[in-house]
User: What shape does this take?
Amino acid sequence: MRRSAPPALVVGLMMITAAAADAAIVNSLRGWSEKEQGWSGGIAGSYGASGGNSPQSTFEGSGRLQLRARDNVWRLLALGKRTTVQDVETANAVLGHFRHNYLLSERWATLAFLQYQRNPFQRLESRFLLGLGGRWLAAENEKTRFYLGAAQMWEQEEIQDQDGEEKAQRLSTFVSAESKLIDDVGLDFLVFYQPRWSDFKDWRMFAEIELTVELTGSLSLFTGYRWQHDATPPEGVEKTDWDTKTGFAFKFLGYKKAPVQDPGPVSVKIRSSRRSVRPS
Assistant: This one.
């Protein structure tokens, strides 16, 4: 029987993408359970508003969906952010990310990803990324996980008021750490560094730290800080962006494939009958 992804999450992903994150890099490790077969995922959102002399409202949302089938793991992520000040839009960004991992062992995995990003307030009409590489689980215990990863990345950008497209190849490296501080409280830290192969002075860096408090089995409260730097941004765009966030996240587990049970040895009883023949 064919099973489809939970429709509520798919709709949520579409709404977030259409609504339009400043982040050029997305954390594809947080919030997953690689040990769970089948579908899983979650939705997170935050909203802030102020009134009076400078009315402002900010909405940020994200959605994630995972499918694991044996040693293959597919992940889809969407991030969006929109801010208005006195009914004038001051931020509108969207990011979509699709990733595949093949689990070679308990510690090693391949990685391949596609990403699309748009942020007109950074003069970025579009950015497409394609990456191929690997990931290593360097350390793990009951409370902590530490990952290292690297990938070859192809990049294509379209910048406002510039003719043509810009293409580049970059090295994408990352460090990720997750720690369970106490029961139901976790801390997550991520750093990406992406230099351009042909010019290491052209580099990007992204750092994020997030604290999560689990309220129920599915609902959690999070707060975090993000920082990103582009050494050679388009003209008129600041090199460094940062923001803070606080909101709620909901996660779910979809269907799980029922394990195939070994019926054990099959015993077959053969019933024989004898027919006695009386002498005549």
In short: The helical segments are 7-19. The first strand starts at residue 38 and ends at 50. The radius of gyration is 25 Å.
